[in-house]
Design brief:
This protein has about 240 residues and is mostly beta strands. The chain has 2 domains: about 5-55, no CATH class; about 105-240, Sandwich (Jelly Rolls), CATH 2.60.120. The chain has 3 helices and 12 strands. Strands 1, 3, 4, 6, 10 and 12 form a 6-stranded antiparallel beta sheet that branches. The chain is rod-shaped, with a radius of gyration of 63 Å. The termini are far apart. Mean pLDDT is about 75; it is low at about 25-60.
């Protein structure tokens, strides 16, 4: 065997002793076998990694499994956001329109803030042949000098006070009642007196005023009518915008 083959075997990890035997002069000159025939070159089988680690003082080759190639991973794709309606605004950020103010308020639906010497009821009453369904009614006192009053706050935005004043149709003849209206404690006029069957319509401007007081006082009451019902009527008394 020549020197090149020996170097190849040495590189492959063949033990040094085996390499020396293969490169001995007897093998290199083709010595005859035991029967004197022509010697044939020995066939050397390739060595496995296990045989390369056998004893004999030769070099040990270290083999490693090849590293797998890096796997390329595709970057995650981000789906385009779908169109969706915007989140609702909190309740305190929503645009709200103020509730429309009423254009008319009856005194019968309001609570008076003051009153003196009266017995009051609200509701429907007949006066002058007509029915007023939202009225303020005073029951008269037996004493002609007793004045009956009720005071109301004027609702915001209201500019007029409208009413039909008089005595209800069941009141006895011969009685008379004095009527007067105050705004913020000041009488709007000198007042007026009405008898049974008489009626007066009033449209009073209250723009800028805060409080309104209606007053009534019996000025004439015959003795024979003392026990008869006498009702002073503020028919459909109401605050209005116009």
């Amino acid at each position: 065997m020549d020197l090149k083959v020996g170097l190849v075997l040495l590189v492959l990890g063949v033990p040094f002793a085996l390499l020396t035997n293969l490169l001995s002069p007897d093998d290199s000159q083709g010595a005859a076998g035991p029967q004197g025939g022509e010697a044939k070159p020995s066939a050397v089988a390739p060595l496995s990694p296990a045989s390369s680690a056998s004893s004999g003082g030769g070099a040990h080759a270290t083999t490693r499994a090849p590293e797998p190639p890096p796997v390329e991973t595709a970057a995650p794709t981000t789906a385009a956001p779908r169109d969706r309606p915007p989140d609702p605004l909190p309740s305190d950020e929503r645009s709200t329109e103020p509730a429309a103010r009423p254009r008319l308020q009856y005194l019968s639906t309001l609570e008076p803030i003051g009153g003196l010497g009266n017995w009051k009821r609200t509701g429907s009453v007949d006066m002058g042949g007509r029915t007023y369904g939202n009225s303020i009614v005073f029951a008269s006192s037996q004493s002609p000098s007793k004045r009956m009053t009720l005071t109301y706050n004027i609702p915001a935005g209201m500019r007029h006070f409208k009413v039909a004043a008089g005595l209800d149709d069941r009141s006895p003849d011969g009685n008379a009642v004095f009527f007067q209206i105050d705004c913020d404690g000041t009488p709007v006029d000198s007042g007026f007196v009405l008898r049974v069957g008489e009626e007066r319509s009033i449209d009073l401007s209250v723009a800028g005023a805060r409080r309104l007081t209606i007053e009534a006082e019996v000025t004439l009451r015959p003795f024979e009518t003392t026990n008869a019902p006498l009702r002073t009527v503020w028919g459909d008394a109401r605050f209005t915008v116009d």
